[in-house]
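# nightly structure sweep
# worker-07 picked up a monomer target from the shared queue
# config: single-sequence mode, recycle default, output format = structure tokens
# input follows
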Amino acid sequence: MSNPTTIEPTQLPATILAYLAAHAAGELDAAARTFAPTAEVTDEGKTYRGTQGVQDFLHKGGSQYTYTTELIGAERTDDQHWVAVNRLEGDFPGGIVDLRYRFTLADDLITELVIAP
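# output follows
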């Protein structure tokens, strides 16, 4: 992989933008459709694998908190690797956090998503 290049968030691939919009709107079925059947999601130190794992992540991840999400930045490493930076504000410890959503894409589907500060 090469070094990431900063881009405008609107320049993220349509699949990533669709996932982010659907997840923020609580449209979990639409969000799930952006993932490959063998996708892996890692969030809060836990990895979810496959279709059922992605469903579990979408329904359980962060569900104990109420928060808003704002897309504040983006990076492109290559045609398969992208980063979306989201600012979350809510009733979780600390109240505000910027999280990096590291996406891997193949055939216009998300094959991997790693969420970390």
